[in-house]
Write a structure and sequence with these properties.
- With 330 residues, the protein is α/β, with parallel strands linked by helices.
- 44% of the residues lie in helices and 17% in strands.
- The chain has twelve helices and twelve strands.
- It has helices at 6-13, 17-24, 32-45, 51-58, 80-95, 108-119, 137-142, 166-179, 195-209, 224-237, 249-261, 295-310, and strands at 63-69, 99-105, 125-129, 148-151, 161-164, 185-189, 216-219, 243-246, 271-276, 289-292, 318-320, 323-325.
- The strands form two sheets. It has a six-stranded parallel beta sheet with strand order 2-1-3-4-5-11, sandwiched between helices. A six-stranded mixed beta sheet has the order 7-6-8-9-10-12, with helices on both faces.
- Helix 9 links the parallel strand 6 (185-189) and strand 7.
- Helix 2 (17-24) crosses helix 3 (32-45).
- The radius of gyration is 25 Å and the shape is elongated.
- The protein starts with 5 loop residues before the first helix and ends in a 5-residue tail after the last strand.
- 43% of the residues are buried.
């Protein structure tokens, strides 16, 4: 059987072809009674809109690019929470009727390809994930004029974002250690070209500054191995330290291993707090105290921000609060 056309639907509904077109394209200027008779005819005839023709009329593709900008070694995309973010984003966009176009920007060549694709208006908007502070991609994509929202803050102030309260979460963790009577509190920070790593370090320093205690910092890269190495360095530099705040749980898990190898009891000798509250945090020995990061909520908030921008909505950033989950390591 031939597919019914707009003309056939219009004849069945007793309205003009243009009225049918406005209804099926979702325009809000159509009278309710017209919309009702058109939709009845659509259901009776089994009419399916021609997506290509509709996109020409609405100038929409009903597609959104999810751009993951991460170096080849996958500092962020290897994080166990990354899959949580991608799943939440995909489900939310699909529920909104948007096709998800996942794009990886790992090199200059792939970033140029992303810029070209977006500039070609193949999508209605862009969600950016896993950006480093020096990444030129946010500013380049903003120049295309398409709606863009970022999962976390970027170096391009014109790009709105949904992010965690990293400063407040880190400060919460350090204040918890202070309340436990810890006096020499060190920090293992993530790569400082990531905004969230810098913000968590800021939160650590602010909490200590209020007490007059000095900062004791070792650099990590958000991996278990870097956390273990940073913990070895901290023990060598300051054997009397009695607490550690790690900027993510993977580094905290690495720190726990080093402390065990060094014969330091947790929490009796050294208390440890992580950040993110990944599933593994509750299965370490001892179970890890961590700042819970509701990544799925942050991902959904970023999607809603982007969908609002596509419809001409506000550009104000969204900040997601954290909470501390206290376990045996403190």
């Amino acid at each position: 059987m031939k597919r019914p056309t707009l003309e056939v639907v219009a004849a069945r509904a007793g309205v003009s072809k243009s009225s049918v077109s406005r209804v099926v394209n979702g325009e809000t200027t159509v009278a309710p009674q017209i919309r009702e008779v058109v939709m009845r005819a659509v259901r009776e005839l089994g009419y399916v809109p021609n997506a290509a023709a509709r996109n020409l009329v609405t100038r929409r593709t009903d597609a959104v690019a999810v751009v993951v900008s991460d170096p080849p070694q996958g500092v962020v995309s290897d994080d166990p929470l990354f899959s949580t973010v991608v799943r939440a984003v995909s489900r939310e966009l699909e529920a909104a009727g948007k096709q998800v176009v996942l794009m990886l920007a790992e090199s200059d060549r792939s970033r140029a390809r992303v810029e070209e694709y977006v500039a070609g208006r193949h999508v209605d908007g862009v969600m950016l994930v896993a950006l480093h502070g020096t990444d030129p991609l946010p500013a380049a994509l903003a120049r295309t004029g398409l709606p863009i929202a970022s999962f976390n803050r970027t170096s391009a102030p014109q790009v709105p974002y949904a992010g965690l309260d990293n400063v407040g979460g880190a400060s919460l963790a350090v204040r918890h250690l202070l309340e436990r009577g810890r006096r020499r509190i060190a920090a293992v920070t993530g790569p400082l070209d990531l905004f969230e790593a810098r913000e968590r370090l800021d939160g650590y320093r602010e909490a200590l500054r209020d007490t007059g205690r000095r900062s004791i910092v070792a650099l990590g890269d958000f991996t278990r191995a870097s956390g273990a190495q940073a913990m070895r360095q901290l023990l060598e530099d300051d054997p009397a330290l009695d607490a550690v705040f790690a900027s993510n749980d993977l580094m905290a898990i690495g720190a726990l291993r080093t402390l065990h190898q060094a014969g330091r009891r947790v929490p009796e000798d050294v208390a440890v707090v992580g950040f993110d509250d990944i599933e593994a945090a509750s299965y370490t020995t001892p179970a890890l105290t961590s700042v819970r990061s509701p990544m799925a909520d942050q991902a959904i908030a970023t999607v809603h921000l982007l969908l609002g921008l596509i419809e001409g909505g506000p550009r104000e950033p969204v900040v997601i609060p954290n909470e501390l989950v206290v376990r045996e390591s403190t």
